[in-house]
Amino acid sequence: MTGQEPLPPQTSVVERSVTVLLMIVLAALVPLASFFGLFFGMASDGCVGDTPCNGGQMTAGIVLSSGAPWVVWIAALVVIIVRWVRRRRTWWVPIAALVVGAALWALGGVLAVSAVG
Predict the structure, then answer these.
(1) pLDDT for 40-91, tens place per residue?
(2) Whole-number Å distance between alpha carbons of 72 and 85
(3) Residue 62: burial class (beta carbons within 10 Å; 0-12, 13-18, 19+)
(4) Burial of 65 (0-12, 13-18, 19+ CB in 10 A)
(5) Where is the chain membrane-spanning (predicted)?
(6) Residue 37: how many CA atoms within 13 Å on its side-chain side?
(7) Rounded to an integer, what distance in angstroms lies between the CA atom of residue 25 and that of residue 22?
(8) φ and ψ at 116, to 5 degrees?
(9) Within its chain, how far is the Cα of 76 from the centroid?
(10) Which residues contact 105 (CB under 8 A, 6 or more apart)?
């Protein structure tokens, strides 16, 4: 005995297929979310006349809403690869990435819009 624990059983082909399909769907949504995140820049249209705006906060919101989907997708891909090597379930990772990415996208929108006066 070497003292090492045996590896858990291999995950099923169906479970891996579901993970790959969910990641493909997520990969299609990422560019759309990133593109629509840039539209939060239109919040600056309210910065006219005597209306004060926080440009740094607006920029942070736009960068967050347009960049977070890419970062979350890449992080999910890394987590999936690590979990596959360790023979763990991965079907839930793309779903969690969708929730986290949507929350960060919305947070970026809130930041951008709240920067206007």
Answers:
(1) 989 888 888 887 888 899 999 999 999 999 999 999 999 999 999 998 999 9
(2) 20
(3) buried
(4) buried
(5) 20-42, 62-85, 92-116
(6) 27
(7) 5
(8) -90, 120
(9) 8
(10) 33, 37, 64, 65, 68, 69
Report how far residue 40's alpha carbon sits from residue 81's, in angstroms, rounded to the nearest whole number: 33
45 Cβ contact partners less than 8 Å away, ≥ 6 residues apart: none
CA–CA distance, 54 with 33 (Å, rounded to integer): 24
Residue 87's CB is within 10 A of a number of other CB atoms, namely 11
| Nearest Cα to Cα of residue 22 among 106, 102, 80, 104 | 80
Judge contact between 117 and 51, C-beta under 8 A.
yes
CA angle, 5 then 11 then 17, to 5°: 155
pTM, 2 dp: 0.85
